[in-house]
Write a structure and sequence with these properties.
three-stranded mixed beta sheet; globular; 60s Ribosomal Protein L30, Chain: A; alpha+beta
Length: 87
């Protein structure tokens, strides 16, 4: 499968910016996407507002999950719950 260079660069940046532990059991992730950055946190979110981001939310999430593979968890198959929000 072909992965564009820009996607590989983004995944590499995700991997390098992660500062947490590496889980080897099921995990839950919350990803918040902003125009110029993203955060991965565990929070409750009740309101939805329009986002200036144009891309599909699942494409952002896939790149982040792939970028965290091997650093936040041993394999992204361990992600059992995922919440993604665009702001």
């Amino acid at each position: 499968m072909f992965t564009p260079a820009q996607t590989l660069e983004f995944e590499r940046a995700v991997k390098e910016s992660y500062e947490g532990f590496c889980a080897d059991k099921p995990v839950s992730l919350t990803i918040t996407l902003y125009k110029d950055k993203f955060t991965v946190t565990v929070t409750e979110h009740d309101t939805l507002e329009p986002s200036p981001l144009r891309g599909d939310i699942d494409n952002y999430a896939k790149s982040i999950l792939d970028g965290l593979n091997g650093v936040a968890y041993t394999d992204d198959r361990l992600v059992y719950k995922l919440q993604v929000t665009k702001r």
